[in-house]
Design a protein that fits this description.
alpha/beta, seven-stranded parallel β-sheet, 10 helices
C-alpha cells in the first residue's frame, strides 16, 4: 500500500486574468478554478487515475475540509483515512495575469490528539508499504512528528518518501528516507546554497552523503536528474504548452512511486514520472491516464 500524508491540506483557488491587475476598481477574472489541494492529496488522485490504490492521511476540518473530502471521494482507488479537526483547512489563492502569484496561508493548528490519531494508522505497516510525507508542516506540528512517522516506517522496514519543503539536512540524517523529491529552489533551501542545472549533480551528492538513498530532482521544462542506490539518470521532458505548473512535481513523484512499487524498475518509473509531470502542466486538473501515456513515448531517459 502507498500512504500519502498531507501535512497541511488546502483548497486551491486559481484565478486567471487577461489584463494586468490594477489597484483601482474591480479586477474581473476570465477563469477561476477550485481544487482540493495538498501535495499528498494531489499524489493520491494521480495514482488513482493510474489505477493504483493509495491511502490518504491528512487533517480535514470545516467547510474547506468537507470540500476536500468530497473531491477525494470522486477517485475510485483512494481510501481516505484522514483525521477530523475542528478548524477549517486553509484556502490558497493563485493569481495569473501573465506572471503567476501564489498567496498561501498558514492553515489551522493541529492538536496533539489529532497528530496521534494520524500516527495510529501507521502502526501496522508492512515491509512492502510506501509512506509519502508531503508539504510544509501545519501549525502545531514540529519535527518530532516527522521523526515519529520515520520511526514507524523504518521499524516496519517500509520505504519513506519525503517531499517536505521545510526539511533540514539533520532531519534527513535521522529519517533516512528511501527518496526525496526537491526542485532546484527547494534543494537550494535545503543546502543553504544556490543550486543550478550546472552544479546540481554535486548538490545531490551532498544529500546522498547524509543518508538519503535516492534523490529525484525535478527541473520543470528542463526535465530532471536522478541519483542514488537505484542508479543515476538524466531526464528529458518533451516541450509542451504550459497551462499551469501547480501540482506538476506532485504528479511526477506519485507516478514514480506508483510505478516503482509494482515494477521495481527505476528507468520505467522515471519515464512515468516525467510523463505525469508533463501531462500535469497541460491541465488545470489532475492529468488522466490517456494524457500521461501520450507524453510517455516522448520522454528521454539516459543512464550515466
Amino acid at each position: 500500500m502507498i500512504y500519502t500524508i498531507t501535512l497541511n491540506p488546502a483548497v486551491d483557488y486559481q484565478m486567471e486574468f487577461s489584463d494586468p491587475l490594477h489597484s483601482k476598481g474591480v479586477n474581473l477574472a476570465d477563469h477561476a478554478y477550485l481544487h482540493a489541494g495538498g501535495k499528498g492529496n494531489n499524489g493520491s488522485m494521480l495514482l488513482s487515475n493510474l489505477g493504483i490504490h493509495s491511502t490518504v492521511l491528512s487533517f480535514l476540518g470545516g467547510f474547506t475540509g468537507s470540500y476536500i473530502k468530497e473531491q477525494i471521494g470522486f477517485y475510485s482507488f483512494i481510501d481516505n483515512q484522514s483525521t477530523k479537526i475542528s478548524e477549517p483547512n486553509r484556502i490558497n489563492v493563485k493569481v495569473k495575469d501573465g506572471p503567476e502569484y501564489v498567496l498561501n496561508t498558514k492553515g489551522p493548528a493541529i492538536p496533539e490528539e489529532a497528530q496521534q490519531d494520524l500516527l495510529s494508522h501507521l502502526d501496522h505497516l508492512k515491509k512492502e508499504d510506501y509512506v509519502m510525507i508531503c508539504g510544509r508542516a501545519a501549525n502545531g506540528i514540529d519535527v518530532t512528528f516527522l521523526y515519529e512517522i520515520a520511526d514507524r516506517v523504518n521499524e516496519a522496514g517500509a520505504k519513506l518518501i519525503m517531499d517536505t519543503a521545510d526539511c533540514r539536512l539533520e532531519d534527513l540524517v535521522y529519517c533516512s528516507p528511501f527518496l526525496i523529491k526537491p526542485n532546484l529552489e527547494e534543494l537550494s533551501e535545503l543546502l543553504k546554497e544556490e543550486v543550478t542545472m550546472q552544479n546540481c549533480a554535486a548538490a545531490v551528492e551532498k544529500v546522498l552523503q547524509k543518508g538519503t538513498e535516492n534523490v529525484l530532482l525535478t527541473m520543470g521544462a528542463q526535465g530532471g536528474y536522478f541519483d542514488g542506490k537505484l542508479g543515476r539518470f538524466v531526464l528529458k521532458s518533451p516541450e509542451v504548452p504550459v497551462i499551469s505548473t501547480n501540482g506538476a512535481g506532485d504528479a511526477a513523484l506519485a507516478a514514480f512511486i506508483g510505478t516503482y512499487q509494482s515494477s521495481k524498475n527505476a528507468e520505467e518509473a522515471l519515464k512515468m514520472s516525467m510523463a505525469a509531470g508533463t501531462a500535469s502542466v497541460q491541465t488545470e486538473d489532475i492529468p488522466d491516464y490517456q494524457s500521461i501515456m501520450a507524453a510517455y513515448n516522448e520522454v528521454k531517459i539516459s543512464r550515466i
